Structure formats: C-alpha cells, structure tokens
Amino acid sequence: MRKTTMMVALALMPVWSVMGGAAMAADITVSAAASLTNAFKEIGAAYEKDHPGDKVLFNFAASDPLVQQIAKGAPVDVFASADQDAMDKAESLKLLAAGTRKNFVANTLVLIVPANSRQAIKALGDLQQPAITRITLGNPASVPVGRYARGALEQAKLWTAVEPKAIYGTSVRQSLDYVARGEVDAGFVYATDAAVQKDKVTVVATIPTTTPVTYPIALIEKGPQVGAGRRFIAYVMAPGAQAVLAKYGFSRP
Amino acid sequence: MDSFFNEPAWIALRLSLKVACWATLLALVAGTGFGYLLARKRFFGRELLDAMLTLPMVMPPTVLGYYLLVLIGREGVVGAWLQHHFGINLIFTWQAAVIAAAVVAFPLVLKGARAAFETVDMQLEQAAMVLGVSPFGVFLRVTLPLAWRGVLGGTLLAFARSMGEFGATLMVAGSIPGKTQTLSIAVYEAVQAGQDDTANLLVIITSVVCVTVLVAANKLTPNRNPQR
C-alpha cells in the first residue's frame, strides 16, 4: 500500500513541477470595463507577443461589479474602469497600489437607435415623445455609462421623463445588444461601442456629459503578479497600445 | 408599516410570487396534460417527446433565454406576429418572466405527473369506463384522485423553481425595478452594486420562501414507506 502511494507521488512529481513552472511565468489578470473589450483583447495579444512567457487573462464586466469582485478577494492585478466613480470606490476600499492610478483614455457618450428605426429621434428632447417607450442605459447603481447618461439627462431636466422608460443593462454591452436587436427604441452607449455594431445601430447624437468620460487604470495592491501588472499598465500607456485604442475610437484623456 | 412593505425588497417578493403563481399554473395544466399523454398513450416517438419536453430543465438558462429572445422578441418569429396582429409586446414585461419561468418549471410537473399516472391501476379506469363514465370523467374522478400527490409534489417543485428562475428571465424580461425585477434579479443587482445590506435581506427572504415550499413538497410527495 505504502509502495503504491510512493509510486503515485513519484509519478505526479513532473506534473507538479510543470504546474509550478507555469505559475512562475506571469499570468496577469486584468479586470476591465466592458467597453474596453475589443481594444484590450488586441492590446493583450500584442503584449503577449512582446513579452514571451507572460499571459494576459481578461475579465470584462461593468466597472462596479469588478470592484466588488476585487474587494471580495478576486486575484486581480490590474483594474481599468470606465469612470472615476468606480475607481474612487476601489480607492476608498484601499484596493489600489499607491501612486499607480492614471487616466489612460477618454470616450464620448452617444445616443443610438436601431439601424431600421422608424422613430424620429434626433436629440435628447425627443426621448419625451409618447411613442418612445423603451430607452436602455446601464443601471446607474453599478454601470458607469448609466451614471453618465443619468447625469446628462438630469442636466437637461429630462430624467423624470426618461426614468419610467428605462431598461437597465447590466453592462454597456447589454444595452448595445438591446438596441442592435431592436428590442428598445433608443439607448445610451459609448461612441466606441456604437462603432462595434455600426451595421445594426445608428448614432443620432453625441451627448455632452457633466463629467468628462475618462478611464482610469491602476495596479491592485494585493494582486498576485505585481511586477507583471506594472509592466502591463506601462504597456497600455505607451504609444503602441494608445494607437490600438485610437483605432477603436478612444481619444487621449 | 405601510412604507415597510413598499420597500423594494417586498415589491420584488410580490412580483416573484405573482410570476411564480402564473408560471406554475401554466406548468400545471401543460405538465398534467403531457404527463397523462406520456403515461397512458402508446405512440411513435413517445420517449423522444418526453426528452424534448424535459430539455428546458437541463439546458443552460442562457440557451433558453436566447431561444426565447429569438422567438418572442420584437423582431422574433412569434413576437413580431403578436405585435403586428394584436399589438402585444412581450419582451421586458412581467408576462415574459412568466413564460421563461413556466418553460423552465414545466418539466418538473411533467415528470411528477407521468410517474404518478403510471402507478394508477388501469383496471380501475377500465371498471369506471364499463360503468359508463366518459373518458374525461374517468380522468377527473378516478385517475386524478389517485395520482394527485405526485402531481402536487411536482407542482410545488415547479413553484420553487419558478421563484428561483434567473438567467432566461433576465434576458427576456430585463431588470426593471417594480416591473420585471424579481427577487433573484434584485439580488444580482444588489451584489453588482455592492449593496450588501439589500442583498442580505433579499437572500433571507428567498431562502425562507424556498424552504417553506420544499418542506410542503416533501410532506405531500407519495410516502415511499407506507408501513412507517
């Protein structure tokens, strides 16, 4: 019996060493705002090419749930948020490594309608029309694009008219999907999201926001790969990655 | 007290109960009908039909949600037809939540009902028939009274499952507070937003309701050891 145990242990040794070796090469976990999905996937692939051995694992969702996951102990190295609010929450929970928070990119809020829409929506005020019954935006409690949209609507004194028609998305990409499928009359997303589905949605207006749409990125203090996390943030700030972000429609902060 | 019961948590609970009741009713009618059909009638493809009808129970909720979205969405096959002919719009309504929950819960009634009907002695049914009772009368006065525990057990499980339905519901009914935001979706939203107090209250309510239903289901399911 003991002999068998020994043999199993011996047989498993190479497996252990391989697994240990894999953990040594840095697997960087990046939790990023859903609107960064397409650009970050491309940047991640480029980063892996330039840093053999490192692997970038992405976790895309709305910014606030990402903060909640990190706060509850998710092993994340880098956090990129779509607004300052979510990053402020992470900062107040003392999740960020001191001095690593930087704005790396900017975006714009747009009002979109399905490409085959027959409604006459040209500006924010048109959302008051009785024929417009469903307007999607991210849930302001947990999705930055919803906060930007609510802020803009409050500024325009339209929030009380729009709120009863609101269909809340769990991320900007869900709102985008609702509009692309024609399930709602209009929706608020970022210009970069609208560009991803440009055959299915039409941008009718660029909406001025009360706070600028800037994306902060930061290193997570308790992340398992602090060194590699720093490398990835530096890579995102560098011209190569910034060019990829610009290609997807993001602008300089 | 009045304001206490108008808290979002209670509104979500009321909505969940409403959705679950309607979904269970639909599941009960369809599940009993198909359960009887599968237990009593011999026809080609019987087991295949059983498997097809059980599918919603084992399929990922996202797959089911997608099917429903494609079917009853504004641009969907059934959805566009309903919109065009009756002006009915299902998506993002509580009725859509009922459909999602009913489809998921229906197999539980079906399984319980089929098993219960199969244990009913056919000689009793034949005796009633010989005495001149109509086939529907036989079902109502002989078969159902003998099988009711199995049917009811399945129905209670279906109710509990309807209360807990999340994935497909979120996809077709969305998350509109007070309109389509059921308990399970309210929990998800509260956790996403980091509102742990709200989440705690919601999960306690959900757990109490589900335990109550399950205890009732256990009491009513056929006793496997009658001598005890």
Task: Give a description of the structure.
The complex is a heterodimer of chains A (253) and B (228). With 253 residues, chain A is of the alpha/beta class. Chain A has 2 domains: 2-106 and 213-247, D-Maltodextrin-Binding Protein, domain 2; 108-207, D-Maltodextrin-Binding Protein, domain 2 (3-Layer(aba) Sandwich). Chain A contains 10 helices and 10 strands. A 5-stranded mixed β-sheet of chain A has the order 2-1-3-10-4. A 5-stranded mixed β-sheet of chain A has the order 7-6-8-5-9, sandwiched between helices. Chain B has 228 residues and is mainly alpha-helical. Chain B is 77% helix and 0% strand. Chain B has 10 helices and no strands. Classes of the chains: A alpha/beta (253), B mainly alpha (228). Chains A and B meet through helix 3 and strand 7 of A and helix 9 of B.
Q: What percent of residues of chain A are in strands?
A: 15-25%
What is the total number of structural domains of chain A? Answer: 2
- Give the SSE string of chain A: HEHEHEHEEEHHEHEHEEHH
Task: Identify the most extensive interface between protein chains.
Answer: A-B, 19 and 17 residues
Q: Helical stretch count of chain B?
A: 10
Helix content of chain B: over 70%
- CATH fold node name of the largest domain in chain A: D-Maltodextrin-Binding Protein, domain 2
What is the name of the CATH architecture of the largest domain in chain A? 3-Layer(aba) Sandwich
Strand line-up across the major sheet of chain A: 2-1-3-10-4
Apparent shape of chain A: elongated
CATH homologous superfamily placement of the largest domain in chain A: Periplasmic binding protein-like II
Distance between the termini of chain A: 66 Å
The Rg value of chain A, from CA coordinates, equals: 22 Å
What gross morphology of chain B would you assign? globular
Sketch the topology of chain B as an H/E string, one letter per element.
Answer: HHHHHHHHHH
The CATH class of chain B is identified as Mainly Alpha
